[in-house]
Amino acid sequence: MNKDKLYDLLKNFKDESWNKSQFNEFLSESVKIGEVDELDFKKDWVENEKICKLILAIANNGGGVIVIGVEESEDKYIPSGLKSFEDKARLSNNLEKFIPENLIAKIRIENFEFEKEVYGQLHDKKFQCIVIEVDNKDLPYLSIKDGNIIGKNRIYTRRNTSVVDANNTEINQILERRIATMYSHSKNLDFEVHLGQLKILYNNIKKSKVHRVGGLNEQLAKSIKSSLAGVIGHEENVRNPKYPELDFEDFISECISEKQKRIKKELDIN
């Protein structure tokens, strides 16, 4: 597995829960590559502040996965497994002490236990994963309180697989991701508004009209109208001087044409 494949798997892991076979394939191959900024290995659960600081750093870097149960030895990663699972509810409560609610909502903890020998080196081993998704419009993610090793309102990120305070360049990159997402979201909303307006315009113009040509009824109507005209007079159509030069349906048709041009512009269609 190369790093590009690893990044694809990590993205997939963030988007949906995996079964044992998928996790087995991922872990068996990822330990050969080692840690990247989006993936961190821990032999066992470490103190809560360290985990929270790591989660914030990974989140500000775009999200990722922390696998608990992988040991580092002489620059190699060994899937040694956990003796037992930590309670998910207790873990979540601990994370809430330092991590903001909008990120807590994007974190899930998954358990993997391999009882069968079919899973090779993972047989009879347990692993827990912290899967960190992000919503770029919420960036940056900041700690909500001070601790011994974590600071309130500090921006942490990952740099060369280490947890660091973001420098000026990294803060700008984080903010650029937020702005780009919000702009894209705004564009999508504008597009939906334009489509809705176009539908309303189409509802105000008839696709076809009924026009009777010839036939007995038309001749009879003309004869009756002609006979009565001499008795009760007749009507003349006189244009209302206040009526717009462009009649309603012509105006709607013109608006539809202009709205279609605007939608093409939103879609970057020439």
UniProtKB/TrEMBL annotation:
GO terms for molecular function: ATP binding. Residues 35-164 form the Schlafen AlbA-2 domain. Gene3D superfamilies: Schlafen, AAA domain (3.30.950.30). InterPro entries: Schlafen_AlbA_2_dom (IPR007421), Schlafen_AlbA_2_dom_sf (IPR038461). The keyword ATP-binding applies. The keyword ATP-binding applies. Keywords: ATP-binding, Nucleotide-binding. This is ATP-binding protein. It comes from Staphylococcus hominis.
